[in-house]
Specification:
Layout: E1 9-10, H1 12-16, E2 33-35, E3 51-52, E4 56-62, E5 74-77, E6 82-88, E7 91-96, E8 100-107, E9 113-122, E10 126-131, E11 142-146, E12 151-158, E13 171-174, E14 179-185, E15 188-193, E16 197-204, E17 207-216, E18 221-224, E19 235-244, E20 247-250, E21 255-258, E22 264-265, E23 270-274, E24 279-286, E25 289-296, E26 315-316, H2 322-328
Parallel strand pairs: 3-9, 11-17, 11-20
Antiparallel strand pairs: 1-2, 2-4, 4-7, 5-8, 6-7, 8-9, 10-12, 12-15, 13-16, 14-15, 16-17, 18-19, 19-20, 19-23, 21-22, 21-24, 24-25, 25-26
């Protein structure tokens, strides 16, 4: 595991000096840094997060200022809520054994402290499905999948207060049907569902959660995924959101034409736009729907190019999927 030191957590000794209740080793006068599993919807964020009760995590030990921690050491826990299950090089394996808080202590063979970090174990109260980093969707609704298209999802484990938890032994089972799942990272999965829904069981902490994700064959509307500022002479990444009722649809195969040029495939749900002239016109298509966006270009980068309140509905092209056709005709949608 390799972590950026800007995305890690400081040990107690690093932040506050040698703790009063410890004898500290002279080998690490500046203490240590620690990095844990990153979340699939963040960029290399190794901040130490609570472990789900019954779940596991792996903690990397880092030297301040860079370099590998290669001193001989012993890893131990100060309390029953956290159990050290192994160590391999500069990585420590831990398990959340009970709800509570404990120090993960890193010491030399004489029990002198290199540094320590406090880690909570929390009850896993909820699980939600989020877009992965490949799709920029800051305003996503409930999640659905584009039928027959690979879509990346992140499984968010949450405490009773909504805090994100870690269980890097998270496992998934497909509950029958024409669905395949591949694991991309501990909390990130690529799902390809050819049926009307993808039924998945996730095992995390001490619980199993069944998640049914509907699949969509035709979008009802296409929106801009966020507000954008286009400044003359600069490039801006512009992203799109496919909607079907309350659902944000992941895995849409987007194509975008910029100012009448031949369409190109988007990267995820985004495309890079070079702003020239008074406006930029984007013709966006995906899952039998299309939408044209005309974005103003300004020399003033502080002005918003497109307000969320100005979002226009999509125009449906070609043959609609059954669900979209039913909705357009006023029929109830399953």
């Amino acid at each position: 595991m390799v972590a950026l030191q800007g995305c890690v957590s400081a040990g107690d000794r690093y932040a506050n000096g040698c703790p009063n209740d410890e004898v500290c080793s002279p080998s690490t006068p500046d203490g240590l840094l620690f990095s844990g599993p990153a979340l699939g919807d963040t960029i290399l964020d190794g901040t130490i997060r609570p472990v789900a009760d019954g779940g596991t995590s792996h903690i990397e030990i880092l030297l301040p200022g860079g370099g590998f921690f290669n001193l001989p050491y012993l890893a131990s826990s100060s309390g029953a809520s956290l159990v050290v299950t192994g160590q391999d090089g500069d990585e420590v394996a831990i398990e959340g054994a009970a709800v509570g808080t404990a120090w993960l202590r890193i010491t030399d063979d004489a029990n002198a402290l290199y540094d320590r970090i406090q880690i909570d174990t929390a009850f896993l109260a909820a699980l939600d499905i989020l877009p992965a980093l490949g799709e920029s969707l800051p305003n996503a609704g409930e999640i659905a999948l584009a039928r027959g298209e690979p879509a990346s999802i992140v499984v968010g484990l949450r405490s009773a207060t909504g805090e994100r938890l870690i269980d890097d032994s998270l496992a998934v089972i497909v509950n029958g049907g024409p669905t395949t799942v591949a694991t991309a990272a501990w909390d990130t999965f690529t799902v390809d569902a050819a049926g009307e829904s993808a039924s998945l069981t996730f095992s995390a902490g001490v619980s199993d959660y069944v998640v049914d994700l509907p699949t969509i064959t035709a979008l009802e509307e296409i929106l801009l995924a966020d507000e954008y500022e286009l400044s003359d002479g600069y490039s801006e990444v512009v992203c799109f959101e496919g909607r079907f009722g309350i659902y944000t649809v992941l895995g849409v195969p987007w194509e975008v034409s910029i100012d009448g040029m031949p369409p190109v495939a988007a990267i995820g749900n985004c495309i890079s736009v070079e702003a020239t002239g008074p406006t930029v016109t984007l013709d966006v298509t995906g899952l039998d729907a299309s939408q044209t966006f005309v974005l103003p270009v300004t020399a003033d980068a502080t002005k918003r190019a497109f307000a969320k309140t100005a979002r226009a509905p999509a125009t449906v092209l070609g043959t609609q999927g059954e669900r979209a056709a039913a909705a357009a005709n006023g029929a109830p949608v399953r």
